[in-house]
Amino acid sequence: MKKKTSIFSEQLTGIKVSKPASYAAGFLAIKEAMWYLNSEMDLKRAFYAINRMNKKGGFDCPGCAWPDPDDRRSVLGEYCENGAKALAEEATLKKVGEKFFSHYSIDELRSWSDFQLGKSGRITQPMLITSGDTHYRPISWEEAYRLIGNQLRQLDDPNQAVFYTSGRSSNEAAYLYGLLARRLGTNNLPDCSNMCHESSGVGLSETLGIGKGSVLQSDFKEAEVIVIIGQNPGTNHPRMLTTLQEAKDNGAKIITINPLEEAGLRRFKNPQRPQDIFGSGTAITDVYLRVRINQDIPLLKAIMKGLLSAHLQNENVLDTVFIEKYTTGFDQLKTDLDGYDVNTLLRQAGISRNVLDEALKLLIPAKKIIICWAMGLTQHKNGVDNIKECVNILLMKGALGKRGAGTCPVRGHSNVQGDRTVGINHRLSPDMASRIRSKYGFEPPLEEGYDVVRAFMAMQAGKVKVFTSLGGNIIGAMSDTEICAGAMQQCDMTIHISTKLCRTHLYPGHVGLILPTLGRSEKDISRQGPQRVTVENSMGKVHASQGVLNPVSSDLMSEPAIVCGIAKSVFPTDSCVDWDAYAHDYEIIRKDISAVISGFEQYNKRVAGGKEFYLPNNSRKLDFSKLPKGKAQFSVCPLPDHALEKDEFLMMTIRSHDQFNTTIYGLDDRYRGIFNERRIVLMNEKDLERLNLKNLDIVSITSSYDDVDRSVHNFHVVSYDIPIGNLAAYFPETNPLIPLNQFAKGSGTPISKSIRVKILKS
Ligand SMILES: Nc1nc2c(c(=O)[nH]1)N[C@H]1C(S)=C(S)[C@@H](COP(=O)(O)OP(=O)(O)OC[C@H]3O[C@@H](n4cnc5c(=O)[nH]c(N)nc54)[C@H](O)[C@@H]3O)O[C@H]1N2
Ligand SMILES: Nc1nc2c(c(=O)[nH]1)N[C@H]1C(S)=C(S)[C@@H](COP(=O)(O)OP(=O)(O)OC[C@H]3O[C@@H](n4cnc5c(=O)[nH]c(N)nc54)[C@H](O)[C@@H]3O)O[C@H]1N2
Ligand code: SF4
Ligand SMILES: [Mo]
What we know:
Strand order of the largest sheet: 26-33-30-32-31-34
Largest sheet: 6 strands, mixed, barrel
Structural class: alpha/beta
CATH class of the largest domain: Alpha Beta
Mean pLDDT: 96
Bound molecules: ligand MGD, iron/sulfur cluster, molybdenum atom
Low-confidence stretches: none
Number of strands: 34
């Protein structure tokens, strides 16, 4: 058996543990936010920026995609602890320039942890490295574009180029980037969605005809029951807790489905409510279903069986009028459910009958139900089916297309949804293809391009010559870290448009370029004057974002300008696209988006003067005319089966409270009671005993797929309240355990939440 080991630093940092927290936020959240801001910049700069974040006329938080309130903005500030950390990380005054790169070789930097890499500071000028070099060195923008142009013009086939996007770009930059790829002739546009909510996109599109959620933030105020499944909002979408608190004030009940009892889902002390700071706050969850990892399908089936049998006794439980009018496939679903025994389903899910009954007691009378979910559902082999089961429940109850009800996939990166809407997709829709054709007069490629997994498989096979990334840290974020890093080094050229140093920069192709760009919080002033960009939040609302800080370096370019610079290096005189005009005046970009992307009519006017608008959403209006039978689809999904060996566990890779994906803000995971260490694996006490391990022992974690062992070493095992047979550890450190060919059926999302592993004492 071949053994693979990790390329991440395996150094331990000195763990401390305490009891997990019993609530989220509170006064400590304010203190932490201030501490982080102060550690990266002076308080004057910090206050100036944070008071303009998420405000009309200011800039959009570079953290998650949770929406700002529709109606009012709090005078105390519209941000959370983790939004402040995101700002601190971006607006830091620490810099990595020529001196830094001439001092540290890439070999040396590879031995650094992601925490150390990220904390080194903002990249201030374009950098170049070529085969055989030990260090990055500065290069001018002109020279960088010249190299890129030569390389891209030389390709035998445009499909030898890949254009990756992370979800922090603006609509304007993302639109141009997609246009550039298509102008070249490729749909190779993988993006972070492929590792994230792709399963939601596929599951929702197949059942409801749109890959986005249906609810608005205001729906939470009217919901009777909110289900939160596979999501940890206290850390990853902290202001969602305010929305949930308001929902509870209005009488909503909350059912949580999660293997871990996350602090934010237990209780919330709103830092903006004095009575919460000094009092006990709001209990969030009413019924907590501690499901075993990836056993949501048996649990959801048990819930559906419960609803069906309640309906037999009282005909008001299911919305039969809705089912008849708007859906298809209900009879097949009923027949399928008849084949399962509730007790067997519950045993598989690890849930007791009593707790199921408590959840049913809330769901049976409810007419207005919202289901919220995130990575706990999408990053499994059956990620798409997980989403379809949630849709089944909503359709049975007619909980769609009315106030207080619907689907709520909670998006990750702040503009990941917008990037997709404006064309970052490895599939080009016929509608957009024909609009590109008529707007620009060139023929866009129609064949499907690579998603992230396929891009790396193609790279491994030597089929990719140029890899470009618009943000992100693909080597840190992807599965099979070593394989992917090796594959990327085989490219002729890698081009990374980035704000900060990350692991991806350390595995360049034969020619490696880093092109430094402005962050959201920074002023973007082109020769036409100050520019604004636009973004779309998790609920389909589009609004403007304008930076307020002076850029950390005068040598930074905006993302739209860089994309145009690359385009002009390939097409110096382009008769189809006026890249020069786009680079300097984003109103022109938006005007053309109006013509190419449906839903953006009169774009400039609709975002002028702080205005915002919602994009069309067919599932909100119960219009399923684009689906095969013109109706929403019920689905029949099989049960998951992991066929674990006796000494194997199922492991989920999750986020600590002090990280944003591969950006490590700090080494604590306060709510889970873990401090100063990221190399940990959470394990049930009974499993510790069974393996003869003591709390905090050092272990290795190994996965075995297709006869290949992949191992990571030096992890503290931490005794934790997690289901027996399940483990949890942080990503990215555990990404080397996930084989590239293990991904969700139908969506290609790596199986980051259900990896089969063994634990060995070191
Ligand atoms: N501060 C901060 N904010 C972020 C991010 C960040 O890293 N840091 N990342 C952003 C991004 S890109 C995204 S996609 C989102 C991610 O937001 P989340 O999806 O909330 O993030 P994860 O930490 O991956 O947590 C998933 C949750 O799912 C649970 N879970 C895991 N497996 C299962 C399962 O099989 N079934 C069920 N029911 N639950 C399960 C875990 O216990 C955990 O509570 O957050 C965004 N916001
Ligand atoms: N095992 C495991 N793996 C996972 C996940 C998991 O739960 N488990 N989650 C997956 C998910 S949900 C996601 S979304 C992906 C995330 O994958 P990515 O989006 O690729 O990763 P990030 O860590 O968010 O990217 C951070 C980098 O983006 C750059 N950056 C930051 N701001 C900007 C900006 O404004 N402009 C530009 N150009 N660059 C910027 C910085 O250089 C920074 O280092 O990871 C996935 N990987
Ligand atoms: S909830 Fe998300 S978008 Fe809002 S301030 Fe916090 S991190 Fe930023
Ligand atoms: Mo994500």
